[in-house]
Every structure is written in structure tokens, then in C-alpha cells.
Amino acid sequence: MKAFVMLVLPIISFLFTFICRVKANYHASFVHTSPSLSREIRSMRKRVVDIDKSRKMAADKDESSASTFEWVKEGNLTKRTVQLTKPLGIVLEEIDAFDSTAGVIILEIDPKGNAAAAFRRGDADICLYDKILAVNNRDVEFSTFENVMDQIITSEENDVSLTLGRAPDTITVRWPNGVGVAAKPGDHFCDLAGLAKCKIPYGCTNGGCGTCEQSIVTDKGDQRYVRPCVSRVPKGLKFIDVNP
After folding, report:
1. Coil, strand, or helix at residue 28?
2. Hey, which residues does 91 pair with through a beta bridge?
3. Which one, of 90, 81, 140, lies nearest residue 115 by Cα?
4. Which has the closest alpha carbon to 167: 129, 199, 120?
5. What's the alpha-carbon Rg for the chain, to the nearest Å?
6. Which strand (E) or helix (H) includes residue 118?
7. Which of 45, 195, 206, 209 has its CA 20 to 30 A from that of 151?
8. Is residue 22's pLDDT more than 50?
9. Residue 107 CB coordination number (10 Å)
10. What is the 3-state secondary structure (H, E, C) of 143-210?
């Protein structure tokens, strides 16, 4: 019996030591990886929040776009003709997906494209959501997207003439990236900058810090400073040129 106990005790001692070491290593490993796991969890939560913010911004943009489409549908559009060089640097979209004859508008303007360059030079008055009324003097006001694109693509000339329609009583806001937005008095400058994809640095977002402050020059020749996070488009103007 004594010999048996003497044989078993070392084994029990070894197992006890082994279990303690494994447990200690487990806790050490857990303590070491916990901050990493916490960071990953925080990162995942941040991504979820960012996704929610993006969805909200997209919804707000869709709502804003929808109201702009309503301006176009109302008719009585002011007309202007512009000459643009191919490739035009614009993205077109049908106004109503359920009515192909409602017409086509300019959905996006590439800041690096020919349309934006012409607008920056003052050679063409072209804005987001302008309706395409004619291509090279051919009426396309109530044409389908395919027909408008066909008129542009098959044009033999390198320059394309576009007759554009814009909602009345709007104010043309030209951003530093060359993208124009047709605004109405009371529109937030920050919303217009988002539509134009013009990057503006923001800080407090309540007008206190001045991080987003921009210089504007109006068609009346006066210069003033606005803070897009809180400022709105004033009344009584036809054109606003925004400069950083």
C-alpha cells in the first residue's frame, strides 16, 4: 500500500502542476487577446453606425432628389443651350422609372470632365438635375433614356449642343470642383455641397468653430463668408460662386 501511494503521489503532483500551468497560460492568453477583441468589437460597432449613417444620408439625398424631380415635372422650365466636347462628363437618368417618356435629367457631373471644366470657365451654364430638352436641336424633351443617349453618341461632331431646362426661380451655385447645383432660397449649403460631391472639412457642425467657412461671390458682385454646416442660400440672387 505504501509503495502504491509513493508511486501515485508523483503522478498526481505532475497532473496538478500541468493543470495549473495550462490554466495560467489560458488566462494569460485571454488577457493578452482581450484588448484586441475589444478593439474588433468597437470597430464592428463603428462600421454598423457608419452604415446606418450612410443609409440615412442616402435616404435624405433620395428625398432631396425627389423634390428636385418635382420641380422639373412642373414644367415652365427656363431654357439655355450649351456646347460640350465629347466625352461630356455627365451621367443621365430618366426622371420617372415608371414613365419612360417623362424625360431625362443630368444626375451627376464628373468634376474632372468636360462639362465641369466648361462650367468653371464660364463657357456653359450646366447644373445637376437640368433636363435635356434637345440634342443638336433635335427635340428630346419627352424621349427615353436610350433615345437621348443615341442622339449624343451618334453625333458626328466632336462638340454636342444640349438645350437644357431648369426649374424657374432657382439660384445657380458653382462649387470649386466645377459642379453646379440649381438651388432654391433656404437650401442648406452643406446639402448642396454633398450633391456636388465637393469635400468640405467640418468641425463642430454648429457654426461655432469656422472649420467649414467658405467665401462666396454673388452675381451682384458682393463677397461674404458662409459656414455651410449652418448657412442657407439667401434670397434675391441668381448666381453664387463658392471658393474655399
Report:
1. helix
2. 108
3. 90
4. 129
5. 31
6. helix 114-121
7. 195
8. no
9. 14
10. CCHHHHHHHHHCCCCCEEEEEEEECCCCEEEECCCCCEEEECCCCEHHHHHHHCCCCCCCCCCCCCCC
For residues 39 and 43, give the distance between their C-alpha atoms in angstroms, rounded to a whole number. 6
Mean residue pLDDT of the chain comes to: 77
Asked if CATH classification 2.30.42.10 holds for the domain at 72-166, the reply, yes or no, is yes
Q: Would you say 132 and 149 are in contact if contact means Cβ atoms under 8 Å apart?
A: no
Query: For 217-236, what is each residue's pLDDT tens digit?
Result: 999 989 999 999 999 999 99
Residue 8: enclosing H or E segment and its boundaries? helix 2-73
Q: What is this structure's pTM? A: 0.66
* Correct CATH for 171-243 of 3.60.150.10, 3.30.380.10, 3.10.20.30, 1.25.40.10: 3.10.20.30
Q: pLDDT per residue over 137-179, tens digit each?
A: 999 999 999 999 999 999 888 999 999 999 888 999 999 999 9
Cell output for 48:
454598423
If you write DSSP's letter for every residue of 67-104 in order, what string do you get? HHHHHHHT---EEEEEEEESS--EEEEEEETTEEEEEE
Report how far residue 91's alpha carbon sits from residue 110's, in angstroms, rounded to the nearest whole number.
8
Rounded to 5°, the CA angle 18-22-26 comes to 170
DSSP state of 55: H
- Domain layout of the chain by residue ranges: 72-166, 171-243
**What one-letter code names the amino acid at 130?**
D
DSSP 8-class letter at 128: B
Beta strand extents in 17-65 (DSSP E only): none
Q: Does residue 35 register a pLDDT over 50?
A: no
